Amino acid sequence: MPRVHIKTYGCQMNERDTEQVSQMFVERGYTMTATDTDADVVLINTCSVRDQAEQKAIGKMGMVRRRRVPLVTGFMGCMAQSRGSELVEKTKVDLVVGTQKYHRVVDYVDEIIRAKEAKMMDEERFSIVDIEEEQASQNAIRDHSLKENQGSAFVSIMQGCNMKCTFCIVPYTRGSERGRPIADITEEVRRLADKGVKEVTLLGQIVNLYGRHEFPAVDGKSPFVQLLEAVHEVPGIQRIRFTSPHPIGYKKDLIEAFTYLPKLAEHVHLPVQSGSDEILKRMHRPYTAAKFTDLVERIRAARPGIAVTTDVIVGFPGETEEHYLQTRELFDKLKFENAFVFRYSKRRGTPAAEMDDAIQLSEQVKEARNQDLLALVNKHAWTKYEELLGQEVEILCEGTSKTNESRLMGRTRTNKIVIFEGNPDRHIGQIFNVRISHYENFTLYGDVVTKD
Residue limits of the Radical SAM core domain (predicted)? Predict the structure, then answer.
């Protein structure tokens, strides 16, 4: 059977989708390969959040095809959804599959291979493009291909987003919100736990608003909190994470969940995007800086020691120096433990891209604000890292370090990376304590704490 390579760009959702497609190939008898050089089928799972991600994907496919032309080439994911047949014309690939058709990829590859073997595909090309919507497609992302001793796994609980932030392409590439049934998700988590998984991360574009259109509240608890409670009861699961939430999804019931669900990890990623009320309004973010500040304070009160990280965009159309300073003031006050700081870039098909060119900021201004805010983030974050020196922290070992294969890597409950010397057979996939000795940038280093 042919060998398949899938290159993934973008978020955890894309990683999870790639895992699902890979498992379906394996079940059909294909062999997955880690590189494209010896693959018969080369697919790229794409991201459209920023133009750079799209260009990387197109560039990668160009490199593959210049080196040699595999039997089947194609794009999946968000860029495939937004560009459709345009990608066939531009890159000469055989297959373009949108975000609601991952479960059909293997069938389409089979069809293309049969056509080529029957010499039905001539030089003028025969291609398959499927970017149509499909009801209940969210339920197809449910299977896993686990590595040996894998301790953590992603679980997709929904697809789509209805928020329509003016800078974001996701509602147009992932469609409207669609949630999976709680029972199905819980059973998937149970199967993972039976295979040794100890930590699950629940995934959704707007994860804490899961199920709001499909499922009722019960005893004042939203569908998402009901799901958290159900997953919390699965034996063997010791940590629960979720990403990426929206501030408006943090209602009273979710904040309270942190007081009585100890398996919820002490970390929330809470995208603020701007500290200026005027810019938030232009972004179509339905909260103010004051309400966001109050939310962070209530979360920290519910679970002392919780780490709060965020996303922010600098240089959004119309952002004045005063607007930026309001963002900087908010960051100085809330002291996030980390932040992804993005320079605004136009995304075709979003409302922000159509805003008056007169209020589009220069790249020099964006870069200056980006560097200034990063320096502030680092100052506050490293204070938290200093506090951990000499302390014992609980980690889940995920595997070898990406930068040094002779060392192992794990994550704390607050989602900080820890590098240490260890035994792969004994430590990978396990939860234990490490004493922190030092840190570099946003990486902690330490030694395994041995029991007497």
Answer: 147-384
133 CB contacts (<8 Å, ≥6 apart)? 100, 175
Does the annotation list 165 as a binding residue? Answer: yes
Q: Is 11 annotated as a binding-site member?
A: yes
pLDDT tens, position by position, 326-346: 999 999 999 999 999 999 988
Q: Which of 364, 385, 406 delimits the end of a domain? A: 385
Indicate if 329 and 214 belong to the same structural domain: yes
- Backbone angles phi and psi of 126, in degrees to 5: -125, 130
pLDDT score at 313 = 97
In which region does residue 429 sit, left (phi positive, over 0), alpha (psi from -120 to 50) or beta (all else)? left
Domain count, the chain: 3
**Does the annotation flag 397 for ligand binding?**
no
For the cut 70, the answer to whether the pLDDT of residue 407 exceeds it is yes
Give the three-class secondary structure for 126.
coil
**Domain that includes residue 406, residue range:** 391-448
- Is the separation of the CB atoms in 140 and 102 below 8 Å? yes
Length of the chain: 452
Tens-digit pLDDT profile for residues 417-435:
999 999 999 999 999 999 9
Question: Tell me, what's the pLDDT at 118?
Answer: 79
Tell which of 385, 412, 429 closes a domain.
385
Contacting residues for 106 by C-beta, under 8 A, at least 6 apart: 21, 24, 25, 28, 30
Are both 152 and 112 inside the same structural domain?
Answer: no
Shared domain check, 195 and 181:
yes
Task: Give the amino acid at 451.
Answer: K
Q: Which amino acid is at 398?
A: E
Same domain (yes/no): 220, 368:
yes
Whether residues 381 and 247 share a domain: the answer is yes
The secondary element (H helix, E strand) that includes residue 218 is none
Does 273 share its domain with 351?
yes
pTM of the model as a whole: 0.91
